[in-house]
Design goal:
By secondary structure, this protein is mainly beta. Helices cover about 0% and strands about 60% of the residues. It has no helices and twelve strands.
Length: about 130
């Protein structure tokens, strides 16, 4: 499983402090990869269920501050995963909106969801290559 970890901090006069009131948006393109999200059943204390999906247009987490989310896993017997991660906050997304075909909001997946525009030119980016042993 590929765990995406994102945390936000802000600089104050006395130093850095975790900013837990930020909305987080992220998109990543990885290969070879199977995307998924975690479905939370309505039953109390029910375990999360992994749901495989095609590459979503955006992952969205509201007022999280810190995200640790398993977004999928490597497929095809490869030992190398390459890709690019784009991250936005509620400060870096556009004020105008657009309709996304597939949006993952923590424990649910929404088709045709209206969300702020996430311009890749204004994102925090990370190019990655992961090599691992079985």
């Amino acid at each position: 499983m590929l765990n995406i970890h994102i945390g936000f901090q802000k600089k104050l006069w006395y130093g850095w402090r975790r900013d837990n009131h930020r909305d987080a948006y992220y998109y990543f393109d990885a290969s070879p990869f199977q995307y998924n999200y975690w479905l939370k059943p309505n039953a109390k204390d029910a375990p999360l269920l992994q749901q495989d999906i095609t590459c979503p247009d955006i992952y969205f987490f509201e007022n999280e501050g810190t995200i640790d989310y398993e977004s999928g896993y490597i497929v095809g017997g490869s030992k190398v995963l390459t890709g690019k991660l784009y991250v936005w906050t509620d400060y870096t997304v556009e004020t105008s909106t657009k309709r996304y075909k597939q949006v993952v909001k923590k424990y649910k997946m929404f088709p045709n969801e209206e969300m702020p525009i996430c311009d890749k030119n204004k994102a925090y980016t990370l190019d990655f290559t992961l090599n691992y042993l079985w």
